[in-house]
Design brief:
Elements (H helix, E strand, L loop, with lengths): L10 H4 L2 H19 L4 E8 L2 H8 L5 E7 L5 E7 L14 E8 L5 E8 L2 H4 L2 H16 L3 E6 L8 H8 L15 E10 L2 E10 L8 E6 L3 E6 H11 L3
Parallel strand pairs: 5-6
Antiparallel strand pairs: 1-4, 2-3, 4-5, 6-7, 7-8, 9-10
Helix pairs in contact: 2-7, 5-6
Length: 239
């Protein structure tokens, strides 16, 4: 099925892109679970905007109970009051629409990530840097990564942002006029040389989506057919 524009009329008037991305992430996870070795599994992680901020807010604690020796050998509770922070810095928590591949025989160790870009990831400088920094962290820890950007309402290029965060430029950048793309990344080490191997593909509305290699940390590759999973998501969501 051809790639649709999910962010402009007429589709945006009747359908929410968030719902479609959730369908697509689920279809990707389903497709991966059909071909992954049995010890590995794929699962969907979705956090958008205020929801990620709410998750962080759960860690705000005003006091912590610590056990101390009580009377007759019992355990009493001593309350420690957290001091007021001396500084508070503005922060951006990036949207997450991700499929994780994990190893259930190794404490659910993260092996690979598929990132579906949201408009919020592209709408301002700090959001773009936060997304790129997140992806850079995955790669620096050896996690395979695929980034898929079909957002037509913002024209920033997050692949190029990631390349800049990694301290590179020149031949690794996509052309300035490219805003829709999919890129597979594989952290690798050849002898004493560390590299990030890349498979970039430019996308177009009305075009087809590619088959990309998803690198599994320390293992190998599995194929991710974005066209098949996108078509499956369109059928499930009746688009």
């Amino acid at each position: 099925m051809p790639l649709l524009d999910h962010y402009h009329a007429p589709l945006i008037q009747d359908r929410h892109w968030e719902s479609f991305h959730a369908f697509w992430a689920t279809c990707i996870a389903d497709a991966l679970n059909r071909i992954l070795p049995r010890r590995y599994f794929a699962e969907v992680q979705v956090h958008l905007g205020s929801r990620i901020e709410a998750d962080v807010a759960e860690f705000e604690v005003t006091s912590v109970a610590e056990p101390v020796n009580g009377e007759a050998g019992g355990v009493a509770v001593q309350t420690w009051i957290v001091p007021v922070a001396t500084m508070a810095m503005p922060a951006v928590f990036p949207d997450d629409i991700e499929v994780h591949v994990r190893d259930e025989q190794d404490f659910a160790r993260l092996l690979a990530i598929v990132e579906l870009v949201s408009p919020g990831n592209k709408d301002r400088d700090e959001a773009r840097r936060a997304f790129a920094a997140k992806c850079s962290t995955y790669l620096q820890h050896g996690v395979g990564l695929i980034v898929v950007d079909i957002v037509t309402s913002r024209h920033a290029n997050l692949h190029n942002e990631l390349i800049h965060v990694l301290g590179q430029q020149g031949p690794f950048l996509l052309p300035d006029d490219v805003s829709l793309y999919a890129v597979a990344y594989r952290p690798a080490r050849h002898g004493e040389v560390s590299q990030i191997e890349m498979w970039p593909v430019t996308l177009t509305v009305g075009g087809t989506l590619p088959l990309l290699p998803l690198a599994l940390r320390g293992t190998g590759f599995v194929p991710l057919d974005l066209e098949v999973t996108y078509s499956d998501a369109r059928q499930r969501s009746r688009l």
